[in-house]
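Box S2. Input/output pair 1.
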Amino acid sequence: MVKGWHGWLGTFNGVVLITMAVLPLAALVVWALARRRRATGSMALRMSLAEVGIVYGTVPWVWMIMLPGDQAGVVPGRVSLVPLRDLLTIVADGGPLTATVQVVGNLLVFAALGFFAPLRFAALASVPRILLLAAACSVLVEAAQYVLRLDRVSSVDDVLLNAAGAGLAALASRRWWRAADETPARRGNRPRSRDAERRGTAGARDSYSAGVDRDKVRQAYASVADLYIGLFGTRERVDPDDLAFIGRHLATRTGPVLDLGCGPGHLTGYLHSLGVDATGIDLVPEFLAHARAAHPGVEFHSGSLESLDVVDGSVGGILAWYSLIHLPPEELDGVLAEFRRALAPGGALVLGMFDHDEVGPFDHKVVTAYRWPVDEISERLTRAGFVEVERLRRPREGDRRPHTAFAAVAGDS
C-alpha cells in the first residue's frame, strides 16, 4: 500500500496510481482546450488531444526513470557508451523476461511524444525528425541521471530504444498526419512532381483568368478605394484574435512572406512590424499607392494571386486574408496549387474566408463573393498538398458575417 508523500511521488507504484487518477482530469483538459479554440469539428479536438497526450503520456515515464536508486548520491554516475552492452548485461543478470520488460519500458518512454507530436506540430510530421527529437530528449534525461547521481546507468542503449519507440509510435499515427494517404478517395492527391505541378498550375491559371473578370474586380475596388481604406485600412480595424492568429503562424517564418490581395497594406505593415520580410501584392493601384505612403519601409507590387512571380519553393509564408472570396469555386484548387508551388516545404499559408453551410455566392458590398463550409476549405487544402494546423472560427456578430481563419503548412514535395 502506498503511504506518505514518498510513497506517492518516489515509487513506481505511486507514479502509476497518480497517472491513473489524473486521467479524468486529462480528459477534461482536452475538452476545455478544444472548446477554448472556438473551432469546430475534428481539428480542434485533434490538436487538444495531441497536446494533452504528449504531456500525459510522457511525464510519468520520465518521472519513473528519474526516481533515485538505493545508492543515489553515494555512488558516482555510471555510463555505458557501447551499443547493446547494457542490454546484454541485463539479459545475463536477470534473464530474458527482465530484458523484455526493460526493452518495452524504454520503447514507451517517448512513444506518446512520437505518436502525438506530428499531429500537433506539422514541422514534426517526419519520422527522422521524431527520431532526432526523441534521441535528444533521451540524451538530456540520461545526462540528468548522471549529473544528479541517481544510482542509474546512463546508457546509449536507453537512447536508442527511446528513439526507436518514438519512431514506431510516429509510424503508428502516420495515417492521421500525412497529407497524402492511401485511401482510394485521395490517391490522386499525392504530391505531384514539379513538372506535373507546373502543368496543372498552368492550366489552372488559364481557367482562372477565364473564370474571373480581374478588371471588374479591380475597377470595383478602385471605385470605393477611399471608403474601403477609411473603414478597413488600419490594423486597429482588425480583430485582435485575427491579428494574433496571423502573427502566430507567420511571424517566425524563414524567408519572404507574401500578403496576397494586400489591399491598403495594413496587414503587410503589421507583419513587417513583427520583423517579417513581408511583401504586399494587389491588383488595385489606389490601394498600392496608399500602402506605399502608409508603410514606406515595406515593398508593395502589382500582381495577381493566380500567377506568382517567384521561384518554386522560395516563399516562407503566404497570407491570403479574404483574398480568395471573389474566386469561383471551380477555380480555387488551381490557385491553392500555385500557392503550394511557391511555398517551401513547411511554409505557412494563412487564409481568411466567409463561413456558410454550403458553397455559394452572395452580394458582397463591392463585387460578388463566395462563402464556404469550413470542412470544404480544409479538404481543398489537403488536396493541394497542405496540412491544416489551426482553425479560428467566429460566428455572426451583428451585421458581420460568420468568419473562419485557416492556418496550414505545405507538406513535403
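Box S3. Input/output pair 2.
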Amino acid sequence: MGPIGVWAAAATVSGVPSTVHALVTGGDALAATRAAGALLGAPTVPRGVAAHVAVSAGWTLVLRAAARRWTGSGVVGGAVAGLAIAVLDLEVVRVPAIRALPRLPQYLDHVVFGAVVGGLSTRAVTGRSRRVAGRRGRRRTGPNAPLWTFHRG
C-alpha cells in the first residue's frame, strides 16, 4: 500500500477510541476534532479536520521513513511510536483545547494510528524488497539490501 493509502487508513481509524469513549460516556463525539482546530487558530470542526489531515500526513511520512530504516518493527513498533507521538502531541505541545480532552482516549487514538501505520508500512516495505531481491541480474536495493556487496572476480 502506498503512503496515501497508509495515511488514509490510519487517519480514518485513529479517532475510533476517543469517539467510542465519547459515545459511551455521553460526551461530544466531535470534541477532539474541534480541539485539533485550535492548532489552526480556533477550535472548529473544519479547522480540526484540516489540522488532523495535515498532522496525520506528517506523522505518516515520519513513521514510514522509520519503517524503511527499522524493518520488522511492524504493528508493535508503530504502536510504540504512536505512544511517543502522543507524549509529544499531548504533553509537550500545550494547546488548552487539546489538554482539556480526556487523556486515555487520546493516547489510545495515537497508539492506534501508530500501529496502523507501522503494520501497513512494514508490509509495503517487505513486499517491495522481496520483488526487488527476486530479480535476477540486478543489484538489490531497499531497506533489506546489504550495506556492501562482495563481487567474485
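Caption for Box S3: Residues 34 and 42 are 8 Å apart (CA to CA). The longest helix spans residues 103-134.
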